[in-house]
Amino acid sequence: MDDTRDEELALRAGMLDRLATMRGRPLVDSVADAMLAVPRHVFVPNAPLSDAYGLGAVVTHRDRQGVATSSASAPGTVAGMLEQAEVCQGQRVLEIGAGTGYNAALLAHLVGQSGSVTTIEYDAEVADAARSHLDAYGANNVRVLTGDGTLGAAEDAPFDRILVTAGAWDVAGPWVEQLAPDGRLVLPLRLRGLTRVVAFERAVVGLRSVSVVEDGFIPMKGIGAIPEKNVPLGPGPDLTLRIDDGQPVNPSLLQALDGELALVWSDVVEPWAWTPEQDFWLATLPGFCRVFVNAEAVKAERIPRAKDPWGAWGVYSGASLAYLCSRQVGGTDQMPMLQVGACGFGPDGADLAQLLVGRVRAWQEQTAGGVEVMVEARPLSSMPLPAEDAALLVVDKLAHVFVVTASPAPVSVEV
Q1: Does residue 109 contact residue 37 with C-beta atoms inside 8 Å?
Q2: Which of 214, 242, 264 is where one domain is finished?
Q3: What region does 22 belong to: left with phi over 0, alpha with psi -120 to 50, or beta?
Q4: Catalytic positions, please?
Q5: In this structure, are 193 and 269 located in the same domain?
Q6: Cβ atoms within 10 A of the Cβ of 318, count?
Q7: What's the pTM value of the predicted model, to 2 decimals?
Q8: Which H or E run includes 31?
Q9: 241 and 356 co-located in one domain
Q10: pLDDT digits (tens, 9 = 90+) for 129-182
């Protein structure tokens, strides 16, 4: 028995060591202690131990088309959200999206026996599995509810912390109502197809972010779900446009790839073409979208590769579109130096490519030292404030207006 326990502790410690190496810094002590104490394999019993203690997500449920509908998030994603939440002993916590129950178990460890965790899962089958896993682990201060997380859990409110572990299109009214006056709401927020994990606290008007981190999550289900639209283009398809906020698509766009492509290169060269927060700068453009590029089409040299392996940012208008691409101009396979460009299709494709490249250049010129992003969630009933005039992005949703601003990142001084 002791040998088994020692082996499990070694697996968890190894996961944390690899995670710290990947992040370039150790986890916050309280989060590290929780992840060392809670056995992740108990919550993904059908996964090999190498996957349970790997650094990737573990898919646990799929729909009939094979699309993942529930998973154990990657340990780095879990740790990052817990660090943003700053959960303390004795707090009352609401989690939206129980998943495997692993995150609820970590929260239960953080709040201790003097605190409590309520977790809500939309899918009854997933909720039953989470209950089973939590029972097997022995978390006796977690209550698992089956229902629509958009409504929260008023009977257990107020909550010191609310964590939403599925991609949210808006901040639901009940979450704000059920948040304690000095509480914190942490959620993966989708704005124009961009996802950021935002830690919100109350402000004079609405909510204001205290931290903003880039990451991705499976979208929410239920009444708070707003599906993204996927538009396939070309044979294969060669490209798939993902469009948010119900933006319309001209049917003639489906023939955009039939003509010649226009290729425009910028003078921007970066390791991995990494340009953090540039996407908010691009999201202000009409027709902003995400473009997924088929690897086989790139290999066949029908289209250039995307700027980012997980999808390029692009724009579309009428029967034309363009997306950011890249090519290696130096460096090594481990650290390639990539030049950023844009390729366009359709009658106005060249103009759209020039537009994207112009925005890339402007971003580099104006934010050479990096930026810090702040997000405000203001109730629709609030009057527009002067700060909106200087905002990088203003997005109207059903319950809130989201105002994104960017300021120069503080310069770190080495002593």
Answers
A1: yes
A2: 214
A3: alpha
A4: 73
A5: no
A6: 15
A7: 0.89
A8: helix 29-37
A9: yes
A10: 999 999 999 999 999 999 999 999 999 999 999 999 988 999 999 999 999 999
